[in-house]
Amino acid sequence: MKGKVFFISGIDTNVGKTYATGILARTLAAKGHTVITQKMIQTGCTEVSEDIEMHRHLMGIPFTNEDKSGITCPYIFTYPCSPHMAAERDKREINLSNITVKTQYLQELYEYVLLEGAGGLMVPNDFKSLAIDYVKREHYPLILVTSGKLGSINHTLLSLFACREYGIKVEAVIYNLYPRTDKLIEENTLEYLSRYISREWPGTQLVVMPEQTEGKTPLPLNISL
């Protein structure tokens, strides 16, 4: 049986989806599952994906053979920007089918493949398609990462609205508590999203990702996949 693929996206850049992906992978592995993470497209790096490095650090494992051979991150671009711009600057093209082939290979080896996107759902892969187009094409269930910073309610609802329009299943919304900002806004945002998701997205889990402490064992996620 092929492994399950979950696409990990965020409501925006720098919302914590790399941490969420690594912590989720560690959580699944602790339950006895075989799990690997994959980065769809990495920008702002050379040779090695820094997000894959972070995943492995959080999982507590070294680079895998699939990491070393480039399977877990098929495209790495040097400039820290949107994939379409980064590819153009490096004079390369992104072949989305190549990413799919790599994911399918990993599905043969692992029970779970956590595929982290670049930025949010409306980030351009190229001048013809967006990240959300790819998620729809591959029929991947989505895990959306949000936070308690000001503006998160708006960004979260817009992302969920887009998923509904595209017919994408949202398996879970992960509420990232790091970094801490305004306690009142954080608590109100969590309460609002909890009520909204319960009412408008029955079956979608709202999972709180605890604030992680550097140097300590990462805290697991209370999630069911």
Keywords:
225 residues, alpha/beta, 6-stranded parallel sheet, 8 helices, 8 strands, 19% strand
Write up this protein.
- The protein has 225 residues and is of the alpha/beta class.
- 39% of the residues lie in helices and 19% in strands.
- The chain has helices spanning 17-30, 50-59, 65-68, 83-89, 96-107, 131-138, 152-166, 183-200, and strands at 4-10, 35-39, 42-43, 76-77, 112-120, 142-147, 170-176, 205-209.
- Helix 1 (17-30) packs parallel to helix 2.
Short description:
By secondary structure, the protein is α/β, with parallel strands linked by helices.
Question: How many DSSP E strands?
Answer: 8
Order of helices and strands: EHEEHHEHHEHEHEHE
pLDDT average, as an integer?
96
Largest sheet: 6 strands, parallel
Give the helix level as a range of percent. Answer: 25-40%
User: How far from one another are the termini?
Assistant: 16 Å
Low-pLDDT ranges: none
